[in-house]
Amino acid sequence: MYMYAQSGTLDGSFNALGATPGYVITDIDGNNDIVKAMVVKPSDKSIYVAGYIDNGDKTLFIAHYLSDGSLDPAFGPGGVVKYQYFTSSFNTTLANAIGLQSDGTIVVGGWTYVDANRDFFVGRFNGATGALISQTYNNFSDINDPTGVDEINALVVLPDDKIVVTGITEMAATGSDLTIARYTAAGTLDNTFNNPAGYIVQNMAGDDIGNAITVDKTSGDIIVAGVANDQIVNSDFAIVRVTSAGLPVTSFTRDLFTGSSDKATAVAIDRNGNMVVAGVTNNPQDIALVRFTPAGALDLLNFGGGTGIVTTGITSTSGENVSSVIIQDDNKIVVGGNTERASGDYDLVLVRYDNAGNIDAAFGNTTPTPDGKTLLTLSGADEDPGAMLLSGDKIYFAGHNTDIVLAVFTNNNYALPLVLSSFYAQKQTSKVVLQWQTTSEEGVKQFLIQRSSDGKTFQSIGTVAATGNSSLTKNYSFADQSPFMSTSNYYRLLMQDADGNYKFSKILIIKFDGQLTTSLSVFPNPTNDVLQVQLPDGMTGTVALQIIDLNGRVIKRNNLASDGHALNTTMDVSTLIRGVYILKAQAGNTTVISRFIKK
Predict the structure, then answer these.
(1) What pTM does this model have?
(2) CA-to-CA dists, residue 230 to 225, 244, 290, 550, 559, angstroms
(3) Are 473 and 561 in a shared domain?
(4) Which of 135, 237, 291, 293 has the fewest C-beta atoms lying within 10 Å of its C-beta?
(5) Where in the sequence is the domain holding 499, given as residue range(s)?
(6) Would you list the DSSP string of 508-563?
């Protein structure tokens, strides 16, 4: 019999032999250690924590913890690397963001003084030793003195190891503006992004800040969340979405409540392509959680009881701050930050919500029964949040009081450590070719291809080995040389990890009657949750699929690669409201359209 700890409680296996099982506290050198970012290495679950040491000057640090909570003795002196760039009397280099490239290289983003200017800083460090590999400084400001500010607040490493960052740039005419820049895998400014600049400076309204960044793995679009009208009483959420090439898709501000000061500090993309943005609103200063559709509209249908907005105050007298938001495999949402106690001190806090924005009462460490919230109270100074990550069945949360605080919490909504981004089939004369793509794998062992003639009883017809561990896009295929010719073929993937855990893909249906497909077909129609899509022959290259409502808004989108043969795939429509929708498929100059009804 296996016993599982309450989800949202400290994981006692982390730092199990230390004084504080479930978390560690590290004092680097007796000064004030500020944690800003964290990343978990998929292959061994070790953790890199980044930030800066504030001892009057500011010195960048990276700490490397092994999976048991001990510092890695092979990384720098005693598990911590410190770095500062000296070119002037301004002795400041700090990290606000961190990521990992596919070869294990650490990428940090922040800012440093170069002579009299505060510049973007991108540094790459050896993941095993902490040795500096490369460093890049960029100043996009048109103010050439210490008031000319360029700062990186967040970054994301792309599947091709390029680096996209966001932050602020101070401009003489418009003040602080939200900035997005892309760097090559080697860490130099990538001038093919918003060609030939390599960066974008976006003036929203007043002083603007980019605080958080993510990438839509389906479209490749880059989404930044931040603040417009910062330092003004009525500041607003700011959202900027650009293509992978740096071309504008949409940008907007959102005033959550009239007269309130709203600040977005975290963003994530859920399994339906919605943008989930977290931050605070001072109405009073509560956690604010907002969900936008891929087109940028508030999700009034499925989130926040018809408002698209959820606010949470931990106690009646508290003030909250938010550093992170993550989406579980089941679309539940976890927000990390801190909350103020009646004494005026701050504790680290986690809050979990269901897919509709209701607090999930099955989560938390409150007693005698959980209430959806987890608080971590330490003695001494206030606890400030730095970053939170979800990896397998663990939630990793890093912050600081005057020292580094790294905690690991249990999470009972375990997701197979794999992201299946597409699964489709092509009918080719007398065989069926199945193709699928993953964008993340952690300890994945294999894919079993299963087939059925009735959609109920499945048998395995082949096995394809998985890459195992990867944060890059991986493509797989399998050919069924002997499909059923007189009845439908039902296909699914059984995806298994090294520990024996598994889950199934959606089911594909191939109607193998030997006839060429000449139009876009959808079935069942009407449908409740899964729409089977059959694309016609002749659509070659990238096929863009869009679900559009009758008001012309794009509700969902997906991209597939086709060699011109008829292609079958599925689309999840379970979250759509009842009604009539248009399905549009486009490849180059070829466009086909069909309609379906969501029951």
Answers:
(1) 0.76
(2) 13, 27, 19, 37, 37
(3) no
(4) 135
(5) 416-514
(6) EEEE-SSPPP-S-EEESSSBSSEEEEEEPTT-EEEEEEEEE-TTS-EEEEEEEEEE
With H, G, I as helix, E, B as strand and everything else as coil, classify residue 75. Answer: coil
133, with CB counted inside 10 A (0-12, 13-18, 19+), is: middle
pLDDT at res. 3: 38
Q: Is residue 11 part of a domain?
A: no
- Name the one residue in this structure whose structure tokens are 């910062």: 230
Indicate if 371 and 393 belong to the same structural domain: yes
In a shared domain, residues 578 and 525: yes
Q: What pLDDT was estimated at residue 285?
A: 86
Question: 514, 537, 552 — which closes off a domain?
Answer: 514
Q: Is 558 exposed, middle or buried (0-12, 13-18, 19+ CB in 10 A)?
A: buried
DSSP 577: P
Same domain, 595 and 470: no
Q: List, for residues 462-505, the tens digit of each pLDDT value.
A: 999 999 888 788 899 999 999 988 888 899 999 988 767 778 88
* pLDDT tens track for 63-84: 999 999 999 999 999 999 999 9
Domain end (from 474, 499, 514) = 514
93 pairs with which residues across the strands? 59, 112
530 token code pair: 């899964």
- 289 lies in the same domain as 401: yes
Determine the Cα–Cα distance for residues 545 and 422; give it in Å rounded to an integer: 12
Residue 522 sits in a domain of what CATH number? 2.60.40.1930
Q: Are 471 and 386 in contact (CB under 8 A)?
A: no
Domain-located, residue 16: no
Contact yes or no for 55/94 (Cβ under 8 A): no
**Closest listed residue to residue 142, CA positions, set 123, 163, 170, 161:** 170
- 333 and 432 both lie in a single domain: no
**Who's near 32: CB < 8 A, 6+ residues apart?**
53, 54, 55, 402
Q: Following DSSP, what letter does each residue of 183-242 receive, concatenated? A: E-TTSSB-TTTTTTTSEEEE--SSS-EEEEEEE-TTT--EEEEEEESTTSTT-EEEEEEE
Strand-strand pairing, 418-428 and 320-327: unpaired
Among 345, 356, 357, which residue's Cα sits nearest to residue 402?
Answer: 345
Examine the domain organization and report whether 31 and 67 are in the same domain: yes
